[in-house]
């Protein structure tokens, strides 16, 4: 059963991509990619950000700027990846 937290209206994927990308540019200097994916919980938006050490936690400032559970009604996931990943997998 899906969570009621994620129920409700969602913005269009184009609007989500545009606003999330704009937000990330204001708070993050590295490479990133906004992707729409699906899993057993349904559709969601993923923000892939390149960091030097993906196993290390984000700084408290980056966590407060980028980490959320929803973005314009969409379930949202922040995924840290090694440098070079975005160019290799999302050309």
What does it look like?
The chain has 91 residues and is an alpha+beta fold. The protein has a single domain (4-89), classed as Alpha-Beta Plaits (2-Layer Sandwich). The protein is 30% helix and 32% strand. It has three helices and four strands. It has helices at residues 13-27, 60-66, 85-89, and strands spanning 32-39, 42-51, 70-71, 74-82. A four-stranded mixed β-sheet has the order 1-2-4-3, covered by helices on one side. A hairpin with a 2-residue loop joins strand 1 (32-39) and strand 2 (42-51). The protein is globular and about 35 Å long. The model has no long low-confidence stretch (mean pLDDT 92).
Overall CATH class: Alpha Beta
Helix content: 25-40%
Q: Quick check: average pLDDT? A: 92
Residues in β-strands, percent: 25-35%
**What is the total domain count?**
1
Q: Structural class of the secondary structure composition?
A: alpha+beta
For the sheet with most strands, the description reads: 4 strands, mixed
Order of helices and strands: HEEHEEH
Q: Quaternary state, please?
A: single chain
- The strand count comes to 4
Low-confidence stretches: none
Ends: how far apart?
Answer: 35 Å
Spatial shape: globular
| Widest beta sheet: strand line-up | 1-2-4-3
What name is given to the CATH topology? Alpha-Beta Plaits
CATH architecture: 2-Layer Sandwich
Q: Round the Cα radius of gyration to an integer and report it.
A: 13 Å
Count of helical segments? 3
């Amino acid at each position: 059963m899906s969570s009621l937290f994620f129920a409700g209206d969602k913005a269009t994927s184009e609007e989500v991509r545009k606003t999330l990308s704009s937000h990330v540019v204001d708070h993050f200097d590295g490479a990133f990619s906004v992707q729409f994916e699906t899993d057993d919980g349904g559709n969601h938006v993923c923000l892939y950000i390149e960091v030097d050490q993906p196993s290390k936690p984000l700084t408290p400032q980056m966590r407060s700027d980028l980490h959320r559970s929803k973005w314009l009604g969409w379930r949202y996931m922040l995924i840290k990846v090694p440098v070079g990943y975005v160019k290799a997998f999302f050309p």
